[in-house]
Every structure is written in C-alpha cells, then in structure tokens.
TrEMBL record:
Signal peptide: none annotated. It is found in: Cell membrane. It comes from the Eukaryota. Belongs to the recoverin family. One of its GO terms (cellular component) is voltage-gated potassium channel complex. InterPro entries: EF-hand-dom_pair, EF_Hand_1_Ca_BS, EF_hand_dom, Recoverin. GO terms for biological process: regulation of potassium ion transmembrane transport. It comes from Ursus maritimus. This is Kv channel-interacting protein 1 isoform X1. Residues 106-141, 142-177, 190-225 form the EF-hand domain. GO terms for molecular function: calcium ion binding; potassium channel activity; potassium channel regulator activity; transmembrane transporter binding.
Amino acid sequence: MSGCSKRCKLGFVKFAQTVFKLITGTLSKDIAWWYYQYQRDKIEDELEMTMVCHRPEGLEQLEAQTNFTKRELQVLYRGFKNECPSGVVNEETFKQIYAQFFPHGDASMYAHYLFHAFDTTQTGSVKFEDFVTALSILLRGTVHEKLRWTFNLYDINKDGYINKEEMMDIVKAIYDMMGKYTYPVLKEDTPRQHVDVFFQKMDKNKDGIVTLDEFLESCQEDDNIMRSLQLFQNVM
C-alpha cells in the first residue's frame, strides 16, 4: 500500500483516536504505534507528491474551503481513490477500514456513528469532499471548529443537544472499538462513570442535556481537552 493510501485510511482513524482522548483523558496503547507509522509514511508521501498526476475535479474550490494545499489535496485524493475506486465510501467500507485498525475490538458501532458525522448530506455515502473537509477541521481547524464537529458527532439524533443516552452510546462504542487495549482496564461501570463526569462538567444548568454553548464553554475551560485537540495539529 502506498504512503498516500495509508494516509487516507489513517485520516479516518484520527477521529477515533482524538475523540477517545477527549472523552477519557487517556490514550490507547495503539497510538504510539500509529504515530510512528504515520511519521514513516510521511517520508514516502513527500516523494510521491512530486509524481502525482491525478488532479481532483474542483481542486481550487477544495483548497479554498479547507486548510490543505493543492499538493496535499492531490496526495490525499490519490490515496482515497486507491482505497475507494468508486470515489465514495459507503458505511460497510467504513466499518471495514476501522476493523483493520482495531482488530482487538468491535469498531462497527463507532464506525456507524462516525460515518454519519462524515455524511453531512445524509446521502448514505462519503465523498472525497466530505472526507477532506472533516480532516481539515481536525488537523488544522480552529478550536471552535473542532469542538463543533465533535459536538455534532455526539449529537446522534441531530436535535442540537447531547443527552445522556447519546453520550452513553458513544462511550460504549469507543470502548468496544478499543477492546482489550483500553487503559486503564475497562470495568463494567466505567462507561457510565465517564458519562456522569461528562455531564457534571458540561451540563451547566443541570437540565439533563448539554447544548452547543455549554459544550464549547466547558471544553475551553478544560486544559486537558485543549491539549487533546492539539494532538494531531502538526502531523501533516
């Protein structure tokens, strides 16, 4: 697999890693391995960038809409097309990608939630434009952009609020995905504890739901969360 193809796949996985850090304040043991692999692949990509001959349609528009250069977009598109020749990713393919990177757990439910966060137009497929826009937010977006994207992921039913049931579903899905590599070792009530802590911190008026404004305010007051948002700031 070429370096740019690996980078495309790992782009999807970055979201899972960052959200896990955001919720639990810890990192899975896989991240050190992932970061080493990613840095190694960057060297391959730098060589490939001089040889990219496929130019995505609307490249100038994507460059204007994201924080990537033309050359970076070309590399990302080449990897995307290599993994997804049809030019789109459906949910089943999305799940297969996550299963490869989390073989010791069950990533299907988390991949389901993440897929629908990527699929902003709710068409049942993720195009390159969807992928690169989201990746741009995670890697090079402002703090508000990153937090808004994360809030949208947690807000499963898209009603503009996060309730405890939604948060529990997300936390359980993340732990299922991490499998035996969760640290500290998962206890039966750990997901509920994380959800309770989340709401104690985020639900400012104690009405049982977290609004976007509450989420933004609480996250920006938390140094650990702010550090987690910087985790992949400079990896490209």
